[in-house]
Amino acid sequence: MPHLQRRELIQGSVAVAAIAALHTSRVYAFPARPGEKIVEWLDKLPPNPVPEVIKNQLVWERLDSWVTPNDKFFSIAHFNRPVIDESTWKLEIDGMVKKPMALTLADIKARPRQEVTFTIECSGNTGLPFFNGGIGNARWAGTPLAPILKEAGVLDSGIEVVFWGADEGEIKRADEVKFKQNFARSMSVAEAMDPKNILCYEMNGAPLPPDNGFPLRLVAPGWYGVANAKWLKRIDVRDQRFENRFMGRDYVTLREEDHKGETVWVETSVGRARLKSAPARVTQVGSNYRIVGAAWGAPVDRVEVKIDDGPWMPATIDHTEEAEFAWKMWSLDWPKPPAGEHTVTSRAIDTSGNIQPAMSDPWIAKKHTYWESNGQVTRRIQIG
Amino acid sequence: MPHLQRRELIQGSVAVAAIAALHTSRVYAFPARPGEKIVEWLDKLPPNPVPEVIKNQLVWERLDSWVTPNDKFFSIAHFNRPVIDESTWKLEIDGMVKKPMALTLADIKARPRQEVTFTIECSGNTGLPFFNGGIGNARWAGTPLAPILKEAGVLDSGIEVVFWGADEGEIKRADEVKFKQNFARSMSVAEAMDPKNILCYEMNGAPLPPDNGFPLRLVAPGWYGVANAKWLKRIDVRDQRFENRFMGRDYVTLREEDHKGETVWVETSVGRARLKSAPARVTQVGSNYRIVGAAWGAPVDRVEVKIDDGPWMPATIDHTEEAEFAWKMWSLDWPKPPAGEHTVTSRAIDTSGNIQPAMSDPWIAKKHTYWESNGQVTRRIQIG
């Protein structure tokens, strides 16, 4: 495995230990008990009406690993799903830069390697009835973006960095103008320069799968999925604020905010992820049940679980595997639940004391778009 | 005049000299000749179909002063034109700040005074057949914005500053959601912190007229008109990118850009002004004609004028009155032009050597929206 050899060469025994942990995580890292069986949720998703857009949703009942395997990882494509020939592909860096660049995949792989374990959630996840599996956690590897931007030399007039994908479709604006456009998202120069951002070519130790952006995607830890542009072809520094479908019209949250008793309707672009948790599955060993779930989107301090209309009960966070931008697994034992139908709800609390909002919280209830639906998730289950 | 006394108190004799210059500018600062008469342009604007939106366009033939008098200054209102009671009005500063503030007009006037002479152009000006007078130059006075933001204490999570006006209307989005919203525009925190930005309460020595934002507007030198929000009521620091009608859907320029032979359709938000010039009027003394015009939007180095399909001829910049963000007046003598119909075109060249584009330049010709129409302006005239 030349890839492993290369990693050993670069990172030595720490990398080997990390790889070992990765390959064993499916066995040891999940709050599981011998002989347990899964109790399926009663609530099932209606059929996905847009299978070409949303592929391979996470099946929460099957969640049994901290890292989501590549073949179980969700994928979103707004236009086509380009199949890119690595031998002719190049990444261009241009626009308001002193020294435009064009990098091959070999050029990018020859640069310093950086890994991050990051749970990516689609900002539409749980905002639509057929969509609750737009989330997954992977170990992403690539090279940091900032040194490349510094090498290209962003001009003082450059205020934004636009990430262009190879995926392309027809755009029709409200003014009826139609044109073809590649997927693109922008960030401010300061946001793009975040040392955590990587130009990612590897997902869980394998080349980036075609559905997840082969040969290269942006991985921007802490941002919703849409910002992590796939199938990158060009990084374009601009002197004006970029406003395409995915910045100014789509992926725009509309919310009623209360301002001293007055309602203010506010529209904002989907950006950094929000605090969230969800029950994943319930398992049973005899009459002893266990609720397992995940929490993510902000530095999670603790998770609480509510059964039916009962009190909030503290869940136990599993510390076997953790990373700054990865979801945390939690569990709550539920001994001898009464037979019948029950609801299970979770809420995460971050390290600043912010609580994941209830669905009835104005923050969620007065949101008029499905984006950023970080309200508490309630699942239904039949016992006995 | 208590106002003058106050200025003298604060700024001393420099201010007095400036005021003196202001009050005499209409007489001395314009490239005029004794006994001249105005030759009207043949091309006249069709009737303004939106008189409630666009009021009081500049009549170029009547332009005879460097500073545009308040009663001749254009005004744009996207919604209503609010009439605000100064005695109850307050400016709120809140959102992602340590110390929210509410300032009365007296509070604002008691803060350090700053003036700027700035030519504001509507970014739609000359982009629509009925609209070529959305421009004017005024001496704006107010207090710098940055120290107020510093006093309020922008939190690290704050990335944008939203300027909310008191003007309000119904918004209907492409997704058919309808709601009421006040006019608002946003800037990045860094852009808002520009020491040149002022919270402006005075226009050419008088209180801000109701149509130009009484009691307070933002004056952001170097930005197109839309950024200079009028009738300010609230300054709201946010942790997400703001995307309302005026940021993400309207005032968005759509342009075909050539990228190595491939056409890339790019949408950007109207922001900083662009290099531009226009012929203002032609005057006649006997058989000696003179073309007078203005140039603005970037640091202007020189202006050239073309008559019919002739060569570009250097115009003379009038240095009587100049300021960094104000238009420059220029003139070109045109002795004994042949009788008949002629065209007059001007182009400005900035200090970096950029030339105001021709209407046939791809920069303009491949622009599909009327915003940022900084192409060369051609006027038609009949001699003899």
Concise account of the structure shown:
With 384 residues, the first copy, chain A, is mainly β.
Describe what this molecule looks like in 3D.
By secondary structure, chain A is mainly beta. Chain A folds into two domains: 46-242, Alpha-Beta Complex (Sulfite Oxidase, Chain A, domain 2), CATH 3.90.420.10; 276-383, Sandwich (Immunoglobulin-like), CATH 2.60.40.650. Chain A has helices at residues 2-28, 105-110, 145-152, 189-192, 245-249, 362-365; strands at residues 37-39, 54-55, 75-76, 91-95, 101-103, 114-121, 135-144, 160-172, 178-188, 198-203, 206-207, 217-219, 232-238, 252-259, 262-269, 276-285, 288-296, 300-307, 313-314, 316-318, 328-335, 340-350, 378-383. Chain A has a five-stranded antiparallel β-sheet with strand order 1-16-17-21-20, with no helix packed on it. In chain A, a hairpin with a 2-residue loop joins strand 10 (198-203) and strand 11 (206-207). Chain A is globular and about 65 Å long. The termini of chain A are far apart. The interface between A and B is large, with 39 and 39 residues.
